[in-house]
Amino acid sequence: MLPGSNSWKEGKARFGLSLQGQVGLKQEDRIERLPGQPYVNFSQYGGYVTVDKSAGRALYYYFVEAHHSKNSLPLLLWLNGGPGCSSFTGALVELGPFRVHSDGKTLYTNKFSWNYAANVLFLESPAGVGFSYSNTTSDYDKRESYAGHYVPQLAHTILYHNKKANKTIINLKGIIIGNAAINDETDEQGLVDYLGSHAIISNEDVYQIHKYCDFSPNATAQSRECEASYLALEDNIIAINIYNIYAPLCFSSNVTTRPKRASILEFDPCSNNYMYVYLNRPDVQEALHANVTKLTHDWEQCGDTIQAWTDSPSTIIPLLKEFMDNGIRVWIFSGDIDGRVPVTSTLYSINKMKLSVKTPWQPWFLNQEVGGYTQVYKGDLTFATVREAGHQVPSYQPARALSLIKHFLNGTPLPNITAFRI
């Protein structure tokens, strides 16, 4: 957790890419119906994409068509971060069409699913995450760095090949990242200040950390005073959910015999456990066309196969600037009660870009209530907070998250106070 270490790079950041005009689905990957699934009027698919035949490396995908207008709505690619965390978290805990009941057997509908706004593709990446696999054992070590690149590197590659071919091979429209590590130095400074301003660590600890710790990307070792201050920080956060500093904790890993009453609007701290049980059922894996190689381990939300992350870039600011220079829409959103990659970290990192403000800081609204706050910068970068949301924004504020993604995909600003007054 110290500056310069890898232990606090497990931020589980989520990323989205907005694409248009993509076609070609394999009929054999169509999922007829998931066990315990309620009726839906859209199609879903699951299966593997081989990315390196010689290494026996394949990535698992889960794709849900839009509820309506599937041929005209865009394709949204969703990746969870970690590194090493499965995008089924996005599908079954955050923004997908279903959530898992407490019995680990049945599903219920998410009326705020993002496939009301787009066709959504969830990809378990890199190999070794979730149901994705590689038959080359050493491949897991060689490819650890890929987990640190994720969507920014993918978007960069798309732009590169579009330019190289002098045509639009993939029609990339925008990139949206949520509660993501952007710039190590300012991210860590922002984390310390956030915990101090929210009475989680003492003012003395904040002072000591800023005085004795080296946040620069070249830092390799820290002073004893810095280490002592971070030990105090860890002692103060160990008993809370750092991904939502006000959320209840899950005290039981057991599923229930019968499903408890569930509501999309009420956060269940044990929902990750329900997902784990559900995805490890053989009938569920068969329906998903998953685990075809019969992996020797259970499906896990976040595995420790991808951990070293030794050559991850310390900043993605140059990539964000590249996207803006090429007319790619960039949105960054932040749940305002996330203590892992807090709003202060994101703001400090954006400030590092020295952008001119186009639309000043103001509240945005949903159903006549403040949904969060937003500021738009010249070059088509929008920053938005989501009020009362933790690290996994759609889990805590699904309606506000859906409103945000709709405006991103449509390229329209979030509703301001003028809409509220009307």
Explain the overall architecture.
GO terms for molecular function: serine-type carboxypeptidase activity. Belongs to the peptidase S10 family. It holds the Pfam family Peptidase_S10. One of its GO terms (biological process) is proteolysis. Keywords: Carboxypeptidase, Disulfide bond, Glycoprotein, Hydrolase, Protease, Signal. By secondary structure, this protein is an alpha+beta fold. The protein has one domain: Rossmann fold, CATH 3.40.50. Helices cover 29% and strands 20% of the residues. The chain has 13 helices and 14 strands. The chain has helices at 88-94, 139-142, 150-165, 184-197, 203-212, 224-237, 271-279, 282-288, 317-325, 343-351, 393-396, 398-410, 417-421, and strands spanning 14-20, 30-31, 44-52, 57-64, 75-80, 98-100, 107-109, 119-124, 133-134, 171-178, 329-335, 357-366, 369-377, 381-386. Strands 1, 2, 3, 4, 5, 8, 9, 10, 11, 12, 13 and 14 form a twelve-stranded mixed β-sheet that branches. Strand 6 and strand 7 form a beta hairpin. The longest helix is centred in the middle third of the chain and has 16 residues, at 150-165. The radius of gyration is 21 Å and the shape is globular. Mean pLDDT is 87; it is low at 5-13, 21-25 and 137-149.
What would the keywords be for this entry?
422 residues, Peptidase_S10, 14 strands, alpha+beta, 13 helices, Rossmann fold, hydrolase, twelve-stranded mixed beta sheet
Blueprint of the fold:
Layout: E1 14-20, E2 30-31, E3 44-52, E4 57-64, E5 75-80, H1 88-94, E6 98-100, E7 107-109, E8 119-124, E9 133-134, H2 139-142, H3 150-165, E10 171-178, H4 184-197, H5 203-212, H6 224-237, H7 271-279, H8 282-288, H9 317-325, E11 329-335, H10 343-351, E12 357-366, E13 369-377, E14 381-386, H11 393-396, H12 398-410, H13 417-421
Helix pairs in contact: 3-9, 4-5, 4-10, 5-6
